[in-house]
Amino acid sequence: MPFTSEEGARRYQETLVPLMFAPSARQLVAGTKLSAGAQVLDVATGTGIVARTAAQAVGSTGRVTALDSTGSMLDVARNQPAAPGAAPIEYLQSTIEDAPLTAGAFHAAFCQQALQFFEDPSRALASIRKALGPEGRLHVALWGSEEEHTLTVAMQRALLECGLSEFTSFLSKVHRLHNPALVNGVLRQGGFVVEHQEVVDIVPDGTWHAADGRRLLGATPLAARLSALPPEQSAALGDACERQLDNFAKDGALELHFPAHFYIARPA
Fold this sequence. Notes:
Layout: H1 6-30, E1 39-43, H2 49-58, E2 63-68, H3 71-78, E3 89-93, E4 106-112, H4 121-131, E5 132-143, H5 150-161, H6 168-174, H7 180-189, E6 192-202, H8 213-218, H9 223-226, H10 231-245, E7 249-250, E8 253-254, E9 258-267
Parallel strand pairs: 1-2, 1-4, 2-3, 4-5
Antiparallel strand pairs: 5-9, 6-9, 7-8
Helix pairs in contact: 1-2, 1-3, 4-7, 5-10
């Protein structure tokens, strides 16, 4: 369920990136020990947070290629400021399977919170494997279970409270690869062997409040469907989301933690 409008992609960048994707990207890239001048591939880059973080890590002599199939996300990514001394980033609108990549060209590949959305993960992984050099490594980030993710819990409960159970399937899909044994199997099918895996606690940037509930809902890929709700139902959902988020508040601020699983895999 990609963002189809630049407005939706902009809300994602302004809200969900600082909430969870930027702190995750920093930890994911920090664990790679990328060398200056490295060639990096970012698969399903979204608005480019992992690509920009990796570009800083490899410096001006490196290069980052960032792929996404959704043009609106790439439009926002291209408009984000580059850090001084960072590597240039080439943004390509393409799936990994169809991308015009040179075989064996990359020292590292990243896939943050995207593998669970691929229709055929094994095929996508095989394409990443082809793009990596023999010593290259794939770095994958995936969320833990629904029950561990405080924002998912609050949104699921709010949707159910408002009789909108048909909207919860997307949130379940976000977490469908939370089981490490399953992920190891998926990576093996795609031609990779896991060398290292760990659970990382992602803490949001900044301070968040229950009153941000409406803004958070509006920044998810569910927003387009939710916008078609009758005004009174939409208002009730916003109230319910705030109410559910308040369960995770202390002294007025939300205490949000997002467990994620990080994997480092080598070509088999």
